[in-house]
Amino acid sequence: KVKLGSSRVIAAAKCGFQASGLELNPWLVWFSRYKAWREGVRRSTSFHISDLWKASFAQYSNVVIFGVPQMLEVKLANELPSSAKVVACRFPFPTWVPESTEGEGIDTVWVYDAKTFRSDQHRKTGKTLLEQKSPPHS
């Protein structure tokens, strides 16, 4: 399963992925649903009106982020399965080491492996992700 911005979901579905789009703007969600129907990939796509901060990423094996990824570093590291891949477009994650980089300038994308960024986070803090999430005991 792939979580993408609504504008890329249809292209991913055409490549054989089961793809989901999360978007705050309800008009973009409805337009995306219509476009998926028109393109013949309605059954391979889903579009949801959702806030990225309130959505769970636990069900996704691949995530593509457009925008400012550093705001989502901890959330993705805590919620994604260890088999997940994350692709950041235009802006790299500042503390993650990419598995690969493609393109140049504004067309650059960085690919990250969850196993790597999870182990890097554990090494830096000395805590597991669950320990980092849990409040301290009194």
TrEMBL record:
Gene Ontology cellular-component annotations: mitochondrion
Organism domain of life: Eukaryota
GO terms (BP aspect): methylation; regulation of mitochondrial ATP synthesis coupled proton transport
Record-level Gene Ontology MF annotations: protein-lysine N-methyltransferase activity
Protein's organism: Xiphophorus couchianus
Entry keyword set: Methyltransferase, S-adenosyl-L-methionine, Transferase
Protein name: Uncharacterized protein
Family label: Belongs to the ANT/ATPSC lysine N-methyltransferase family.
